[in-house]
């Protein structure tokens, strides 16, 4: 990831990338957790294949979140004690470059998780329906939002 082509300061871009990525990771994890809980309540022991896939997806997202946390601890924060974001241009450049590499690796793994879930037999919509939509679809959208995170970075003017 090179420096942004937009007018935003590099530190602002770094801050936005970190926060948006963390938000999307958390959203996908939350939806997967809720979906698994909802299906366990609704279907009991039926759908073992779906439960296994959801657990694997959740485990993968936990790993990705831990990798993101490690990136923050090593590149985003000036120090763990203060938890202040780096501001030195060299440190910001390094953080942006490392974020780009991490996100690129995550993208492929997220795509694999997404594909596994989309190839599963879809649970009955009556089991996945919640007041604000269909949790099955919402989970797929949340994973897709992570996969296409590069579009968000492009809108910020960050060059991959």
Task: Give a structural overview.
- There is one protein chain.
- This protein is mostly helical and 160 residues long.
- It has one domain (10-155).
- Helix content is 73%, strand content 2%.
- It contains six helices and two strands; from the N terminus they run ααααββαα.
- Strands 1-2 form a two-stranded antiparallel sheet.
- Helix 1 (10-43) runs parallel beside helix 3 (89-118).
- The radius of gyration is 18 Å and the shape is elongated.
- The model is unreliable at 1-7 (pLDDT under 50).
List the helices and strands and how they pair.
Elements lengths: L9 H34 L4 H29 L12 H30 L6 H4 E2 L2 E2 H13 L1 H7 L5
Antiparallel strand pairs: 1-2
Helix pairs in contact: 1-2, 1-3, 1-5, 2-3, 3-5
What can be said about this structure in brief?
With about 160 residues, this protein is an all-alpha fold. The chain contains 6 helices and 2 strands, in the order H-H-H-H-E-E-H-H. Helix content is about 75%, strand content about 0%.
Label this structure with key terms.
single chain; 160 residues; mainly alpha; two-stranded antiparallel sheet; 2% strand
What is the percentage of strand-forming residues?
A: under 5%
Largest sheet: 2 strands, antiparallel
Order of helices and strands: HHHHEEHH
Which secondary-structure class do the elements indicate?
Answer: mainly alpha
Which regions contain 5 or more consecutive residues with pLDDT less than 50?
Answer: 1-7
Helix content: over 70%
**What does the radius of gyration come to?**
18 Å
Overall pLDDT level? 90
Q: Write down the domain tally.
A: 1
| Number of DSSP E strands | 2
Distinct helical segment count: 6
Distance between the termini: 4 Å
User: What's the overall geometry?
Assistant: elongated
Question: Going across the major beta sheet, what is the strand order?
Answer: 1-2
């Amino acid at each position: 990831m090179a420096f942004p082509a937009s007018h935003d300061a590099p530190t602002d871009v770094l801050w936005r990338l970190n926060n948006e990525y963390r938000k999307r990771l958390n959203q996908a994890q939350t939806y997967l957790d809720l979906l698994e809980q909802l299906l366990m309540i609704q279907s009991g022991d039926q759908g073992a294949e779906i439960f296994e896939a959801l657990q694997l997806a959740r485990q993968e997202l936990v790993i990705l979140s831990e990798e993101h946390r490690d990136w923050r601890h090593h590149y985003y924060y000036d120090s763990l004690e203060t938890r202040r974001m780096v501001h030195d241009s060299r440190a910001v450049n390094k953080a942006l470059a490392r974020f780009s590499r991490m996100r690129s690796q995550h993208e492929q793994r997220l795509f694999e998780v997404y594909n596994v879930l989309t190839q599963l037999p879809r649970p009955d919509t009556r089991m996945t329906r919640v007041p604000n939509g269909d949790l099955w679809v919402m989970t797929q959208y949340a994973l897709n939002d992570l996969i296409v995170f590069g579009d968000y970075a492009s809108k910020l003017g960050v060059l991959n």
